[in-house]
Amino acid sequence: WPRTAGRDGGAVTIGGADVRDLVAEHGTPLYVVDEEDFRSRCRDYREAYADGDVHYAGKAFLCRETARWVMQEGLGLDVCSGGELAVALSVGFPPERITMHGNNKSLAELERAVEAGVGHIVADSFEEIARLGFLADRHGRRPRVMIRVTVGVEAHTHEFIATAHDDQKFGFSLGSGAAAEAARRVLALPQLELVGLHSHIGSQITDTAGFEVAARRLATLLVQIKEEHGVVLPELDLGGGYGIPYVEGDTAPDVKVIADGLREIVARVAESAGLPVPRLTVEPGRSIAGRAGVTLYEVGTIKDVEGLRTYVSVDGGMSDNIRTALYGAEYTARLASRESDAEPMLSRLVGKHCESGDMVVRDLWLPADLATGDLVAVAGTGAYCRSLANNYNYLPKPAVVAVRDGESRVIVRRETEEDLLRGQL
Ligand code: LLP
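# LLP complex -> structure
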């Protein structure tokens, strides 16, 4: 739940706003983002990495307004497509604070990044290094390049969101020598400035050991590059991936503790080789946006499947939150429009889509007097819900409202039927 969540007169409040008022004004399903929670997480990171850089990973949830918050809080931004870059540039995000990612950036996307003068481009393949050399010549620019290194860490998270084992599509593998070869190739192109190395081991990781192993391996490669080429790279980007609690019993690593640990590891490796300590960057997405977001749904049909459980249907589902269906993600939800002391009933919160995998929360306890028209709030939906939203079954994407000091305002408007038909001939 967001830091400002509470209860007032029985109903849940977020950022001082009563969910019943939010729904009366904006409808359901509704994504509610607690602005202060989002911003305070930005500040926590800024403080923990005061001597480094924090780049919010826009894929978690980027819109023009969240880009402004990130900009105002002094963070940089990680984008991984031309579209994300366009959102950032549209609000005047300083390009030098943007990092461009992607395992298959198109020539047009790379060109846009080079032209805009983004602060870092993270090279992910040999083809891309060649393309960057060509674009640098064409535009008379000297892009600042990092090399994405696959450090060979098995992160303990869902297979689809683990990214540092060898058998996947991202980066240059460390073990095979591809990463060292990538450094050689970038250094051979004087029109490119190699500024550092990058690693991202996966997402929703709560065991910090993986981050530490990755930092040590990356710092070791930095030392090897110095030995081989005499070049001291000034920066290490350790990616994102810091987990958040979704259900009771989940733990989340502490931002400050991780920062201190990583800083120490990198400093030890660099100093023992007589190198200056590189500047650290991290790219948190979920751990900034995730807890700030809550989804509000209205309860529709309630079906008691004798002896098993009660299926509670809401007016959204896998189109506004696909994470349960895609990763088996778990969420916490509660009756939000009133309090109830009725007995808890074993429930499954399901959507309105035409498939049985369409679940929002697989198993939860809801009060037995739950009724059609009640509001249910699902916590922890600020990251990777709106950004993964889709129009399956032609459901319009819900609005996103920001709440702060009891006031709400739409930051992304609800899609309409007209939006759904747009572009069709
Ligand atoms: N940096 C890079 C290069 C990344 O690929 C990612 C996430 C991040 C930073 C931010 O990671 P975070 O701090 O948010 O964990 N759709 C999945 C998550 C995919 C993450 C992709 N990359 C989910 O809903 O769990």
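# post-check
The pocket of LLP is lined by residues 57, 59-60, 78, 101, 161, 200, 203-204, 239-242, 283-287, 323, 327, 384, 388 (CB under 6 Å).
The two ends are 43 Å apart (CA to CA).
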